[in-house]
UniProtKB/TrEMBL annotation:
Pfam families assigned to the protein according to its UniProt record, in alphabetical order: TIM (PF00121)
Source organism (scientific name): Adineta ricciae (Rotifer)
Keywords on record: Gluconeogenesis, Glycolysis, Isomerase
PROSITE patterns: TIM_2 (PS51440)
Record flagged with keyword rRNA-binding: no
Family, similarity comment: Belongs to the triosephosphate isomerase family.
Cellular component aspect of the GO annotation: cytosol
InterPro entries hit by this protein: Aldolase_TIM, TIM_sf, Triosephosphate_isomerase
EC number: 5.3.1.1
One GO BP: glycolytic process
Pathway field: Carbohydrate degradation; glycolysis; D-glyceraldehyde 3-phosphate from glycerone phosphate: step 1/1; Carbohydrate biosynthesis; gluconeogenesis
Protein name (record): Triosephosphate isomerase
Amino acid sequence: MAGASGRRFFVGGNWKMNYSKAILEKVNDALSKTKDADVDIVCAPPALFIKDFVASKPAHVQAAAQNCYHAKEGAFTGEISAEMIKEAGCNWVILGHSERRTLFHEDDEFLKKKIDYVLNKTDVNVIACIGETLQERESGKTNEVVERQVKAYQGDYF
């Protein structure tokens, strides 16, 4: 059901780098029992298995990619574009996840390039992640980090 503000609820699940046909079947079985007209449900399987998920998911569930690059095409080995994501059946992409920030050193400026590209050049929606590391939380920097990340994302869409 919609919240008091009239906004729809949103539930997202990120499979990270986990996949098997058994997981796909279990996820789809569970999702087939969760239909609610006022809730958007989005799942993000690993890129290699997006098409498997799109082909088998319940109709009320949407697909997301876990990442994309800020260009339509080019010599960017291992990357995928928002246009490829859309063609594979995704309406969403997750950007700014904590692992991408820490393990792959994606900073606010780089993430803003990705978000700007996706929102200004495609009709793919963005799930923009924000959050602090454990070390930042323990040192009392949560508000500072979250504020910095949100400011970096601000544009015509926030």
